[in-house]
Design goal:
Four Helix Bundle (Hemerythrin (Met), subunit A); single chain; 78% helix; mainly alpha; elongated
Length: 150
């Protein structure tokens, strides 16, 4: 069995900076959700407004949108970070650029979803989806490049 000494590219700091910036997108979601909760009048521990509340009160509806946007972010951030950190080992500059695109797209997604409901998330979704898919493909390629050569 062969072993490898893993060297991190000098540009890997860009990758780590983008990874760290994604943590602030979660904080942005938190702030949007707190604002929407306060405006809706829904108190803790209520996680979502009921269907009836959301249909009657636009503020309750937007609170549900803020909650769902944050949940969606939390669902996607781990795979994004994994793809970013792996792909960055072989393609640090491209990974950092795509990662920055994902962070931008997810910020746009959050702002759009929380201000105008599901239709407002579309443009941010497409940006983040394309960047995320490219990072995942690059992560697989980076892994293959590190396989032992026969």
């Amino acid at each position: 069995m062969a072993s490898y000494a893993l060297q991190v590219p000098s540009e890997y700091g860009y990758v780590l900076t983008v990874a760290a910036s994604s943590l602030f997108v979660n904080t942005f979601h938190f702030l949007l959700t707190v604002k929407a909760r306060n405006q809706s009048g829904l108190r803790y521990p209520i996680p979502y407004a009921s269907q009836e509340q959301a249909e009657k009160d636009p503020k309750a509806y937007l609170f549900n949108c803020a909650q769902r946007a944050q949940a969606n972010f939390i669902e996607h951030q781990p795979s994004f970070l994994t793809a970013l950190l792996i792909s960055g080992l072989w393609f640090p500059t491209a990974s950092a650029a795509l990662g920055a695109g994902w962070v931008f797209g997810r910020t746009w997604y959050a702002a759009g979803y929380t201000s105008s409901g599901p239709p407002g998330r579309t443009k941010g979704f497409y940006i983040s989806f394309l960047c995320d898919t490219a990072l995942k493909i690059m992560a697989v390629i980076a892994g293959v490049k590190l396989l032992p050569q026969a």
